[in-house]
Structure formats: structure tokens, C-alpha cells
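Postdoc handover notes: sequence design on the structure in folder B. Input C-alpha cells:
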């Protein structure tokens, strides 16, 4: 018993994305539960492959929705089609809990390209090139006067670590570079041009940059508005600096679609990875096809019939997840842990599993209910009734963005795009009481 439960528990980790070929992958797009239109990945691939010039695209999805896994699949498809793919994880270079600026992104791209070319597994014959951090150190030495440089520059070998980990260093460095953004941009662009020349010398295909994880940029109670404003500034005010000399795909937070930046961005529409539809948009009743698709995710991670006498006992967890893979896996781990502590026999009897599932829903539901403030309720109730986010005022925008950040509001696409509350938010007594009140 212990081995089956332990193995299932560890195959439901919520913090990892799946690499291409992982036997746990379920193609929700192919199953038609993420919309009846072509998938985001198809749109992104064709937008690049059809373009005779460098294309620059935006992609988004909720944390744990499968976005990074889909990007890995997209990267593999590009590689099969002859492209160089440089996959850059912004978490490797930025603190995603504080405001970001365009310099952060430019340096991240350059540093990511530098790391890609330095990898022994990089395609083709390796040709020597001057490393980015060496060039950046020289740039700082030559362009920033000593009296303005309010921070001691580390040696080249330590510069990347200082930029990535030392927030105080980076803050003071940017203060010293104030007014020199065009020069920094030129330095990064020249480095990218040189890198693309190196790639072209050993590979005939084009190059695609995939800059992932920037959608995780999220503040706290003290700086959330400043963080969101910084994202808008990057993609509206400073977008021109992101026009790399090769194809580029940037991930962005999903709330950017309804902020002013979402309409004004020069990169075109933001492609959002929808949740799996597990409930009917009009009736709220379970959607059989979507429920089965989420059960397929569990089936790929554990022997359901060896663990449960009746696998349908898990359907309440599936519906309560709202089609959000991360929450389904999180609830399954909670369930498996509780089952193991009770030392129940396998396969698990349905009558004994049901009360444990009820407990799991209460425990995970409390996680969603606790952050709901009185100021949130009116907007949440409006979304719950309309299953849309239309009708909000400009003053609502940042509060709505907060709701997206907390995953209180989910995005779906089945024909048209629609929105709904996370089912665990609907379970909140605060929300239920308001929904039961008659409209005035």
C-alpha cells in the first residue's frame, strides 16, 4: 500500500513542468476541452513560421496551468522544423517579487543567450565569443563615471550572481546608469547580433527566443500596484527595446489582457492558455468531457483502479479544481497523505474516501477563502453572475488583477472566451451569502 500511495504522491508534484516525452502529459488541446479553436501553441508556431521577418509574440497562462510544459512542446516543434531555440527562464536572473524594468529584460535576454551558447550541448561547432558579463563589465567601466558609480563592481565571475541575487546592488547600479538606457540597449543588441552570427555559422535555421516565467512577476500587499505598473511600462512604453533581431516569445501575466496595456501593446493580441472546461458556462453543471480529461491527468500519474474501488469518487475534486491542473494535483496530494495516515486498505473503499475528500475540499477551500476581503466581494459576485469580466470600471482594474493573481477568477475558452470564479471561491460562505441575495 505504502509504495503505491507514495509513488502517486510524488508523481503529483505541483511545482514542476513536464518535459517533452514525459508519460504524465495529457494533451488537453487535442481533447477539445481548452476550446474549439486552434491551440495557442499552433497560433504561436504559425505566427513565427509564416513570418519573413522577426516576429514578437506574447503568451500567458495561470501558474500551474501547463503553460511552461506547452512552451517546451512548442520549442521541440520549432527544433524539429530546423530552428535554433533559446529557452530563457527569467527566474534564473530576476527577483519576480519586485518591480521589473526594461533593463532587467534586456540583460536577462543577453545573459540567457550567453548561457545557451556556452553550453557544451549547444548545436554545431563551438566558436569562441566574448561572454556577455565580460562585455557588460567593460561597458560599465567605460560608460559610467566613477563619481556616479555608487556601488562597487564585482569581478566578472561574480557579476552575474550579484545581478541575480543582490537586489541592493542592482538598485544602485541602475541609479548609476540613469539616462543611459539607449546605450545599454545598444550594447545588448550588439551582443545579440554577434550571438546570432555565431549560431548562423553552425546552424542554417532561424532562431527563436522563448522568454519564460515573466508571468510569475507578482508583488505583495506593499508593492503589487508598482509591480503591475512596471509590467505595463515594459510592454507599452518600452516595447521597442524588446524587438530582438530574431523571433521572440515573451510570457506575461494573464491580467495584462484587460489592463490598458493589453489593448495598447504593439505585439498584437496576448495568447492565453485557457483552463480545462469542467463545468458548463451557463448551468454550472459538470462537463463530462472536461471531467474525463482531468481524470486522464490523474490516470497518467497513478494506477487509479488499484488505489480506488470506484474512481468516480474523485469527480468532486476534479470539479472543485475548476479545470486547473495545479489545484487538482494539490488536492490529490492532500488526499493521498490523509489516506496514508489512516492506513486504509487498497483499493480504497468509497464510503471511507468520501469523508476524506470532503475534508480536503474544506482545507484547500480555506486557502482560497482566507484572502477574500470585503472590497473583493462585489467584483467576485459580478463575475460569478455574469461569468464575464465586462462592466468593470477603471478603478476595478488593479483589484481584478489581484483576483487573477490569486486565481480567484479563471479564464476559459469554448467558442468565445468566458470567465468564472474558482469553484473553491464559490464555496466561500462570504460569496454564497451574497449570491443568495436578490438583485436590487
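Designed sequence:
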Amino acid at each position: 500500500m505504502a509504495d503505491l500511495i507514495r509513488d502517486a504522491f510524488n508523481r503529483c508534484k505541483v511545482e514542476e513542468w513536464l518535459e517533452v516525452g514525459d508519460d504524465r502529459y495529457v494533451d488537453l488541446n487535442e481533447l477539445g476541452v481548452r476550446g474549439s479553436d486552434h491551440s495557442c501553441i499552433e497560433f504561436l508556431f504559425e505566427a513565427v513560421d509564416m513570418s519573413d521577418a522577426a516576429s514578437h509574440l506574447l503568451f500567458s497562462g495561470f501558474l500551474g496551468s501547463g503553460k511552461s510544459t506547452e512552451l517546451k512542446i512548442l520549442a521541440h516543434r520549432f527544433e524539429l522544423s530546423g530552428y535554433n531555440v533559446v529557452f530563457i527562464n527569467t527566474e534564473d536572473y530576476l527577483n519576480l517579487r519586485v518591480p521589473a524594468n526594461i533593463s532587467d529584460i534586456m540583460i536577462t535576454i543577453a545573459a540567457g543567450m550567453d548561457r545557451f551558447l556556452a553550453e557544451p550541448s549547444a548545436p554545431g561547432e563551438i566558436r569562441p565569443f566574448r561572454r556577455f558579463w565580460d562585455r557588460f563589465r567593460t561597458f560599465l567601466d567605460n560608460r559610467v563615471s566613477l563619481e556616479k558609480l555608487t556601488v562597487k563592481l564585482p569581478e566578472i565571475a561574480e557579476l552575474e550572481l550579484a545581478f541575480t541575487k543582490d537586489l541592493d546592488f542592482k538598485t544602485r547600479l541602475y541609479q548609476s546608469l540613469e539616462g543611459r538606457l539607449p546605450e545599454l540597449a545598444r550594447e545588448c543588441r550588439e551582443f545579440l547580433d554577434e550571438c546570432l552570427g555565431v549560431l548562423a555559422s553552425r546552424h542554417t535555421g532561424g532562431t527563436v527566443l522563448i522568454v519564460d516565467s515573466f508571468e510569475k512577476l507578482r508583488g505583495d500587499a506593499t508593492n503589487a500596484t508598482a509591480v503591475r505598473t512596471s509590467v505595463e511600462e515594459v510592454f507599452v512604453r518600452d516595447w521597442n527595446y524588446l524587438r530582438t533581431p530574431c523571433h521572440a516569445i515573451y510570457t506575461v501575466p494573464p491580467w495584462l489582457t484587460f489592463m490598458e496595456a493589453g489593448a495598447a501593446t504593439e505585439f498584437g493580441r496576448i495568447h492565453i492558455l485557457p483552463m480545462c472546461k469542467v463545468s458548463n458556462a451557463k448551468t454550472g453543471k459538470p462537463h463530462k468531457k472536461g471531467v474525463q480529461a482531468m481524470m486522464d491527468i490523474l490516470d497518467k500519474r497513478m494506477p487509479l483502479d488499484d488505489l480506488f474501488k470506484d474512481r468516480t469518487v474523485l469527480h468532486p475534486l476534479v470539479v472543485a479544481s475548476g479545470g486547473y491542473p495545479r489545484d487538482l494535483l494539490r488536492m490529490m496530494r492532500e488526499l493521498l497523505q490523509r489516506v496514508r495516515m489512516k492506513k486504509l486498505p487498497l483499493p480504497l473503499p468509497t464510503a471511507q474516501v468520501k469523508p476524506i475528500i470532503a475534508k480536503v475540499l474544506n482545507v484547500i477551500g480555506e486557502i482560497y477563502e482566507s484572502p477574500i476581503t470585503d472590497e473583493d466581494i462585489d467584483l467576485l459576485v459580478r463575475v460569478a453572475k455574469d461569468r464575464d469580466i465586462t462592466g468593470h470600471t477603471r478603478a476595478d482594474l488593479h483589484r481584478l488583477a489581484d483576483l487573477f493573481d490569486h486565481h480567484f477568477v479563471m479564464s476559459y475558452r469554448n467558442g468565445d472566451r468566458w470567465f468564472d470564479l474558482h469553484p473553491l471561491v464559490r464555496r466561500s460562505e462570504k460569496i454564497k451569502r451574497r449570491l443568495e441575495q436578490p438583485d436590487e
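Context for whoever picks this up: Residues 297 and 371 are 29 Å apart (CA to CA). Don't rerun without checking with the PI first.
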